[in-house]
Amino acid sequence: MDGVEEPIEEAPEEDAPEPRTPTLLDQMGGVSGIIASGVPVVVFVVAQALSGNLVASIAAAVGSAIAVAIWRFVRGDAIQPALSGLLGVAVCAFVAWRTGEAKGFFLLGIWTSLVYGGVFLLSVLVRRPLVGVIWHLVNGEGQEWRRDPRVLRAYDLASLAWVVVFGARFVVQRWLYDSVYADTWLGWVRIAMGVPLAALAAAVTVWAIRRSRQAAAGEPEPAPRSRGKRSTGTSRA
């Protein structure tokens, strides 16, 4: 009828996308956070090489750690990794100041590598590889993945990759710490064995996580290729 307004059908509201679960890399501050965490070490090594003054080098390292924290705060990035890094730099600086030697700045990192490597190795020995435990714990996925042998093997390899990284750092840097090359090479070796080695272990970790995802999706494990001769389907008399 005229004069009667027909009700207007409202368009159905689209479902809002579910918030993405932060990954382990996100909680570590992302790639930029990992790189930024190495800035104070680089600053300390360069300042020590240029000035040879321990106090000036410590001040430069602590100042750069504070600058990184402020920069991440202004950008709206996760501040927790930066604060943790600032605390670590402060402890390293204190050790170097107390020992009166530049190599003391790296002492905490050397022994931390031994502890981390031991923990990762122990996790593999008790059949609870730490890479898998951390990943599924952070993402709230439980620990059912341990029932799949191929996933367990993948996380074993990823955890052992971190054992190699931390073990190599400890062995090489501990030897340098007690050698006559400490003042010349220890800092540069620390930088060289930092992000590059971690990137290699991270690549193995990503592979292990993808392996876990494939198993969760029910994808079958690829059948091994036979090394024997192919069967022609005919038999010889």
Question: How are the secondary structure elements laid out?
Answer:
Elements: H1 24-27, H2 30-37, H3 39-51, H4 54-75, H5 80-99, H6 107-125, H7 130-138, H8 149-177, H9 182-192, H10 195-216
Keywords:
237 residues; membrane; mainly alpha; 66% helix; 10 helices; transmembrane
Q: Please, could you describe this protein's structure?
A:
Keywords: Membrane, Transmembrane, Transmembrane helix. Residues 1-22, 214-237 are annotated as: Disordered. This is DUF3159 domain-containing protein. The chain is mainly α. The chain folds into two domains: 25-100, no CATH class; 101-218, no CATH class. 66% of the residues lie in helices and 0% in strands. The protein has helices at residues 24-27, 30-37, 39-51, 54-75, 80-99, 107-125, 130-138, 149-177, 182-192, 195-216. The longest helix is centred in the C-terminal third of the chain and has 29 residues, at 149-177. The radius of gyration is 26 Å and the shape is globular. The termini are far apart.
Order of helices and strands: HHHHHHHHHH
**Anisotropy-based shape:** globular
Distance between the ends: 93 Å
How much of the sequence is in beta strands? under 5%
Reported for the largest beta sheet, the result is:
none
Instruction: Name the helicity range.
Output: 55-70%
Total helical elements: 10
- How many domains comprise the coordinates? 2
Number of strands: 0
Structural class: mainly alpha
Overall mean pLDDT stands at 81
Name the assembly state: single chain
Low-confidence stretches: 229-237
| Rg, alpha carbons | 26 Å
